[in-house]
Amino acid sequence: MLVQISNQWQSLNTLSGVAVGTAMFIQSQSSSRVYFKQQDAQPAAGSIDAIIVLPFTTWQVGSGSKETWVRCDDTAGQLYVE
Fold first, then answer.
1. Are 68 and 16 in contact, with CB atoms under 8 Å apart?
2. CATH numbers and ranges of domains, the chain
């Protein structure tokens, strides 16, 4: 599933419809950096205290993890989630 993200923190679980705690495979389809964070509540606006994912790379979220939050440097980006 292709998911649109922005430069504001958004729940990848909500955007993708994948339940919190479910394993996910994620691939950046953006030419800008993606910030990735797992926690219960939405991070503060503008916060970059997170894992930085470089353009066109992949990563995984393990089962049992907290809610997954993402944002990108540009005003719009894309992630492929399965």
1. no
2. 2-81 (2.60.120)
